[in-house]
Amino acid sequence: MAEKLQTRCVIAGGGPAGIMAGYLLARASVPVIVLEKHADFFRDFRGDTIHPSTLELMHELGLLDEFLKQPHQEVRELRAVINGEIVPIADFTKLPTRCKFIAFMPQWDFLNFLSAHAKRFPSFRLLMEHEVVELIFENDRVTGVRAKTPRGEVEVQSDLVIGADGRHSTIHARAGFKEREFGVPIDVLWMRISKKQDDPQQSFGFFQHGKLLVLIDRGDYWQAGFVIPKGRFDEIKARGLPQFQNDIVSFAAFLRDRVAELDDWSKIKLLTVQINRLQDWCREGLLCIGDSAHAMSPAGGVGINLAIQDAVATANLLGDKLRNGPASMDDLRKVQARREWPTRLIQAMQVFIHRRVVTGATSGRQSSLPLVFRLLKWFPVLRQIPARFIGIGPRPEHYCRRGR
Ligand SMILES: Cc1cc2nc3c(=O)[nH]c(=O)nc-3n(C[C@H](O)[C@H](O)[C@H](O)COP(=O)(O)OP(=O)(O)OC[C@H]3O[C@@H](n4cnc5c(N)ncnc54)[C@H](O)[C@@H]3O)c2cc1C
Question: For site-directed labelling of 283, which of 136, 154, 163, 218 has its Cα 20 to 30 A away?
């Protein structure tokens, strides 16, 4: 017999979208259960960027001072090394936000912080090692989920199911939602390389003739992301590890003395990159947000911000309704209507970056700097455009106390 639970809102997935939505709904006194399939938040593949708009939200929630006491790095200017030349890309210091920087913080610290605060609300529950495997339907309405746990099956009945289970979403597959796939010409190889005291002190992106190495500073090691043409991992493996190690060193010579740590392909994980978007984000009793509604690529490092903003819009638009009963289809559609155009805009930008910047403009053998980067180098004021796009994004969402 499955254990049975009942709540107003059940959220599948404890990533940035799910934990933020859970926190905000619980704060609005909505009984909410978040189901996360893993036992903890410690996983390598998570992005580490907390954007100025998210920091603004933390301020609105009264959490900013405590949040900034967590270990993090503050990056005020994003720089890339393009065909060997250092180019400033984005200047966050002029943004109209309280924090004029991106905070780099391991995402598990962010999620632990936010979920610890959420647990202070009596209406919040986070159940780890609960993998949602099925939706429960009554007629055509979604009325809950079935989850697999190490102790057996659990059924959660609820007025609303939120799918926040990321880019390989079980929820949107089970709901039968149609999605539009945008071809992405890249995948990412993800690995750890140890860090030394005299290494550069900032996270970095190195572009070279259509290839890209990103190094994310995680304190005592670099989380390295190496962008490769889609489907070419087997080819790279066939060339052998020494050749791969040389490729890494050709981007970041300071890694020469330790690249041999990558002595087995099991230390190098393939992350497939997708960009897609659901046609409908909702049906009766169900709403998808974050990557579950629109999978984002790492380009521009904006997917986490977008997922969080979806969560804020969801809580703002549905919090009052859910406190008193189910949300109607019209209510759910309002969330999609509000968040769809920012998503479309950012995804269009990501597709452009893939075609023109990662695999296009920097892919020639020419050593000169592509025009877009020369302009950013010559005219500092232009660096405020990518800063605004990355740091705030279109239609930033704010915490709304309305009706409470
Ligand atoms: C290689 C790579 C690097 C990236 N780097 C960055 C970056 O630096 N900055 C940035 O802003 N964006 C980055 N992105 C994009 C970003 O990761 C996503 O846009 C963002 O994580 C979406 O958040 P989410 O909460 O919707 O989903 P996720 O972060 O994917 O969270 C989903 C959660 O649901 C859980 N889950 C999955 N299935 C189930 C299930 N059936 N039942 C219960 N739980 C489940 C997962 O364990 C996970 O905790 C990157 C993407 C890739 C592919």
Answer: 154
- Residue showing tokens 């997917």: 303
In the DSSP assignment, the letter for residue 31 is -
Chain length of the chain: 404
Cα-to-centroid distance, 16 and ligand 1 (Å) = 7
The verdict on the CB of residue 145 being under 6 Å from ligand 1 is no
- pLDDT tens digits for the chain (404 residues)? 889 999 999 999 999 999 999 999 999 999 999 999 999 998 777 778 899 999 999 999 999 999 999 999 898 998 888 877 888 999 999 999 999 999 988 899 999 999 999 999 999 999 999 999 999 999 999 999 999 999 999 999 999 999 999 999 999 999 999 999 998 888 999 999 999 988 887 667 888 776 789 888 877 889 899 998 888 999 999 999 999 999 999 988 999 999 999 999 999 999 989 999 999 999 999 999 999 999 999 888 899 999 999 999 999 999 999 999 999 999 999 999 999 999 999 999 999 888 776 655 445 555 577 788 889 999 999 999 999 999 999 999 999 875 44
d(CA 205, CA 76): 15
Cβ atoms of 273 and 297 closer than 8 Å = yes
Question: What pTM did the predictor assign?
Answer: 0.93
Pairing outcome for strands 152-163 and 286-288: parallel
Q: Is 170 in the pocket of ligand 1 (CB under 6 A)?
A: yes
- Closest-CA residue, ligand 1 atom 39, reads 165
Whole-angstrom distance, CA of residue 230 vs CA of residue 187: 5
Q: What distance in angstroms lies between residue 38's CA and the mean position of ligand 1's atoms?
A: 13
* Ligand 1 proximity of 17 Cβ (cutoff 6 Å): yes
**H or E segment to which residue 89 belongs:** strand 85-91
